[in-house]
Amino acid sequence: MIDWKNRYADNIKDYQGYPLGKTLKYLSDPEIISLAGGLPSPEIFQTSELRAASEKILLNDVDKIMQYSAIPGEQSLFEAVIDFLKRDNIHLEKQNILITTSGQHGLDLAGRAFLDKGDIVLVDRPTFAGALVAFNMEKATFVGVDIEPDGTHVDGIETKIKQLQKNNKTPKFIYVVPDFQNPTGITMSLKKRKQLLKLSYAYDIPIVEDSPYRDLRYYGKDLPSLFSLDQELYNGGGNVIGLYTFSKIFCPGLRVGFNIGHPEVIKKMANIKEGNILNTPKYNQDLCTAYLTQMDFNAHLDKCRAYYKDKLAIFLETMEKYFPKESGVTWTTSEGGLFLWVSVPDHIDTAQLFFEAIKHKVAFVPGEQFYGENPEKNHMRINFSFASKEQLKEAVKRLSACIKSID
Amino acid sequence: MIDWKNRYADNIKDYQGYPLGKTLKYLSDPEIISLAGGLPSPEIFQTSELRAASEKILLNDVDKIMQYSAIPGEQSLFEAVIDFLKRDNIHLEKQNILITTSGQHGLDLAGRAFLDKGDIVLVDRPTFAGALVAFNMEKATFVGVDIEPDGTHVDGIETKIKQLQKNNKTPKFIYVVPDFQNPTGITMSLKKRKQLLKLSYAYDIPIVEDSPYRDLRYYGKDLPSLFSLDQELYNGGGNVIGLYTFSKIFCPGLRVGFNIGHPEVIKKMANIKEGNILNTPKYNQDLCTAYLTQMDFNAHLDKCRAYYKDKLAIFLETMEKYFPKESGVTWTTSEGGLFLWVSVPDHIDTAQLFFEAIKHKVAFVPGEQFYGENPEKNHMRINFSFASKEQLKEAVKRLSACIKSID
């Protein structure tokens, strides 16, 4: 029989998949309140609208739904996406868009298109674990700079680029989540967005802008995306590749998203999609088209925002009341998104604390999973979108008791 | 602005995607009868059954359908697949199965798991173009041997292995489609199946067995799959990885398939799936579960077999009547599947003939797309499943006229 472990590709041999999955497997006890996942709340799912849309498309189009369909995406969804992005001052044609089978797929397509083993990706510290996982499959090297309260430490990134250049190395791209970053909830200021773009132009380094939470703003006013700022200079795609998903604004279960960018890049990613999965299922795309064109998504987004804003407020309030600030516990606030970042004193390793928390029937994601290199150990990612309001309050109390118990 | 073409990963830089896609784009004229695609016929789609199943699962499970779900697959589909494979004398547990987002996805997961740049894959000449595309994304090297009327030229494969060993090279795996191979329609004999397995054991080289058409047998009796023969020696997965899809037996549009094999390999592929797309949509999986458990798939498969058998007979009969055999035109026959392989005299390049055929309002796939190396130019792949019976007859007449016109 084959000794499989010695047969894997070099890139994949030591790759272990998504660390979050290993965390979630400890959560089978139904009494545990999980603040670990990044799940949107089913309380705001448009279930009756989805059923109605489903019935309609299966009545009209079942033959086409059951057949192979165009690999880059459905014409109707392209049109809906083009309209959707106009609200955000992004003006595209079909050739600038690739329908993906989720945001994770969008990340993987970016990784496969650009990364050879050892290629450098510039990232925030911390940054989205799913991006690290995707780029790890290409054996990328991550060079990171600690994120600041107003977003990416752009000066620090420039210093890193200069250091790399001295060794004749140029990063392949800069990966950022400018709006309500996963895991910290931090949003990049307008000043820094412009500064980051300038850096991209000056050093000729592309930016991959991941925008899953962009429409989930609860406070403050919208800031232009890097993509739209880039478009002011380069109509139809300059230095920025944008990654979008329907997972947080409609639902994750359908697995549909889209990448936007220069036609050359979109074509290459479409070619990779051909060898990877062929088409995204038409049914799933058609439901997303219905979401954008028939389900009054503006009203739905307003509802989502009010719903999550409420949860965020409760969460912050309860943390303020119960968390042992005197022990050095701190946390970020956020104007939107699904996550906050809680820091405990340096001597506490949250990967250990996680198992204590499980005993207290509460869970989070240990922060070390969100670092491309040299992980810090004393942070945790907290999700406030999925648990009910009552559960959120109880979870904070349990977590507070847990931290006090080991301090 | 970024000069994107100079930024791509080395593996992907020269990769152009699926050549078939470039062929299909010439077929927009509705008068063209296409024998090019590999599409199942919508005439046998279970549309009302799908609608009924859809209504039921959206009624009972919409919240779970809209949410993230388990990455390896749904428990209910695992159970249905385990039962489905028992008919075929394959006895598995959940740990032996990974639900994929289609057969193409299964191929890509195999390629990513095992192939480094330059790694050798042993293939038939010709072989399935989709496998070549997937493995090309890892810059595999193909070493092929001409297929024989009873399947893979196993002795020839052994000679290649010995030649490679002299240069200290060991192929990563052998890729075969034993049942009604795409593109030739050829089925591997039982004798050769046993011989190929022996070779795999003797040289310690895994086999990737692709089985999309296995249940579409119209003549003759079922032969045991390589996987089931391997299981006689190694319960739970020995040297063979099996790739399956619902595309040809239910429908391609849902994009669901499954890979089977040793738990170690399945786990590694699941890890890759985590970084690639996360979960396959639960809705799409649930419909496949309904297909296997509620739609009387045995009766449906009988119907499919009768329907395609009829088309194959008509096609063979019309070719016999019209094709200019005196000019040296030959073709394979098949006991099942969706394809036949037509050969024209050496001096005719079917990639050129394709454009003549378009003028005659008929289309096929030029055979050169099905070679991993040193493509032969004088073959074409013909699909007989999609066009209507009347269209099939007319297509053969047109193709015959086309061949005569250039001869």
Task: Explain what you see.
2 copies of one chain form a homodimer. Chain A is an alpha/beta fold and 407 residues long. Chain A has 2 domains: 4-46 and 299-406, Aspartate Aminotransferase, domain 1 (Alpha-Beta Complex), CATH 3.90.1150.10; 67-296, Aspartate Aminotransferase, domain 2 (3-Layer(aba) Sandwich). In chain A, 44% of the residues lie in helices and 13% in strands. The first copy, chain A, contains 14 helices and 13 strands. Chain A has helices spanning 10-13, 19-24, 47-66, 75-86, 103-114, 129-136, 154-166, 190-203, 226-233, 263-276, 282-294, 297-322, 350-359, 389-406, and strands spanning 33-34, 97-100, 120-125, 141-146, 173-176, 207-210, 240-245, 257-260, 330-331, 339-343, 362-363, 365-366, 379-383. In chain A, the strands form 3 sheets. Chain A has a 7-stranded mixed sheet, sandwiched between helices. In chain A, strands 9-10-13-12 form a 4-stranded antiparallel sheet, with helices on one face. A two-stranded parallel ribbon of chain A has the order 1-11. In chain A, strand 9 (330-331) and strand 10 form a beta hairpin. The longest helix of chain A has 26 residues, at 297-322. Chain A starts with 9 loop residues before the first helix and ends with a helix. The model of chain A has no long low-confidence stretch (mean pLDDT 96). The interface between A and B is large, with 83 and 83 residues.
List the helices and strands and how they pair.
Two copies of one chain form a homodimer.
Chain A: H1 10-13, H2 19-24, E1 33-34, H3 47-66, H4 75-86, E2 97-100, H5 103-114, E3 120-125, H6 129-136, E4 141-146, H7 154-166, E5 173-176, H8 190-203, E6 207-210, H9 226-233, E7 240-245, E8 257-260, H10 263-276, H11 282-294, H12 297-322, E9 330-331, E10 339-343, H13 350-359, E11 362-363, E12 365-366, E13 379-383, H14 389-406
Parallel strand pairs in A: 1-11, 3-4, 3-5, 5-6, 6-7
Antiparallel strand pairs in A: 2-8, 7-8, 9-10, 10-13, 12-13
Helix pairs in contact in A: 3-11, 4-11, 5-6, 5-10, 12-14
